[in-house]
Amino acid sequence: MEEPQVTPEAGAAEAAAPDLAAVEKERDDYLDALQRLKAEFDNFRKRTAREHEAMSARANEALLGELLPILDDLERALEAAEQHEEARLEDGVRLVHQALADVTRRHGLEEIETDGSFDPHVHEALLAQPSEDAEPGSVVQVLQKGYRLGDRVLRPARVVVAE
Fold this sequence. Notes:
Blueprint lengths: L7 H75 L3 H21 L2 E3 L11 E7 L9 E6 L2 E3 L2 E4 L1 E6 L1
Parallel strand pairs: 2-6
Antiparallel strand pairs: 1-4, 3-6, 4-5
Helix pairs in contact: 1-2
């Protein structure tokens, strides 16, 4: 019996077939791992967004819970105004203002200082007017108070500046 003759090209093809199968398997494994990683990341992103939304809702709920008594006080002040009790109305409005200021302070809201010189980072100059009493560049009048929350300016103070 004669053995079949193997040509060099046929031997190389047979040797390459197992290598190709191994490379294809490795490629499929990497593709599968990448797809799993992508799915895990998408799930993480969605879960983080849900948690952030829930945390914001809880924070809003707590703040609104503190504001409800102030809303009640405003309603009582309006009822007093209907009965023409001006003195009680003024006292009621002062109490409501104080309660609202206390709640905002507890949540980190601070009034921007307007004493002294103009600071473009926290002040908005609406007018410049000559003043004999104040030095140029200083705040002479506050038209609207400004507020900051932590290190962020929520609303700059609107001021009149001396020329």
